[in-house]
């Protein structure tokens, strides 16, 4: 039996570089809604891909751009947080835009901030939009600006080169046990999506009242014979007092949140959903959250 491998890979690049498209190609279509949520929740999202005996856990970071407002700074910090935790970083550069000022500033930040020894692969994306000569020149220019571990020419949209990149990542992640058992991977994205939908509805409903130490986990997911899905989730809060806020007067807040989340999930899944929400106090939430954060199972806002 071959040895198992597992590691974290951060996809970085300017906004619109194609990170979500690439992630979806490597992980599967199911995460697309999660990455769409990045824009609204500013959460760090991960998807998981298996390649042979390797488990690749992707960190899809919010777009890296020059910080202007305070919020932007928080987003950029969150993006770099993801990159610094990773075993391997993949920088996506758009073939038709080339070495832009934005890419230059990312390269500078990589030199300054990335822990020594973290390998960075270059993926020149959207190669379907340019001629071969342009590509070679661009690859040389970029490799002169940074010492990349490897250069890939890909089209995330059309799928060119994506398998090569995935196989390389699989070989590069450290040897070691998988972070997730194989049978959990299949529905993990769906569980994450479902938890994120409820989290979003809570945010919309509670605004600034929202206890910031709050997390939603999908405990159980049952696909029923009649085609519907039963989803059980737990909303964890850190204090007894927070429980009252989330429940609301006579439970009206949690009921409204559950209804809104159920409607969105029903629409997304295209079949009836029975959603059951329970609010629980978990005082040691903070310590645990670090663990969950590491595993990519948590969706708190970045600021
Ligand atoms: N022609 C072409 N278009 C692509 C390719 N990959 C991605 N795109 C398009 O580029 C646009 C941006 O792609 P996304 O995957 O959303 O980019 P992103 O990096 O996740 O963007 P942010 O979430 O804003 O950071 C979309 O319209 C994609 O369809 C490609 O290989 N070729």
TrEMBL record:
The keyword RNA-binding applies. It holds the Pfam family MMR_HSR1. Residues 206-283 form the KH type-2 domain. CDD domains: Era, KH-II_Era. It comes from the Bacteria. Residues 125-128 are annotated as: G4. Residues 154-156 are annotated as: G5. Residues 13-20 are annotated as: G1. Keywords: Cell membrane, Cytoplasm, GTP-binding, Membrane, Nucleotide-binding, Ribosome biogenesis, RNA-binding, rRNA-binding. It is a peripheral membrane protein. The keyword Ion transport does not apply. Residues 5-175 form the Era-type G domain. It is found in: Cytoplasm; Cell membrane. An essential GTPase that binds both GDP and GTP, with rapid nucleotide exchange. Plays a role in 16S rRNA processing and 30S ribosomal subunit biogenesis and possibly also in cell cycle regulation and energy metabolism. Belongs to the TRAFAC class TrmE-Era-EngA-EngB-Septin-like GTPase superfamily. Era GTPase family. Monomer. This is GTPase Era.
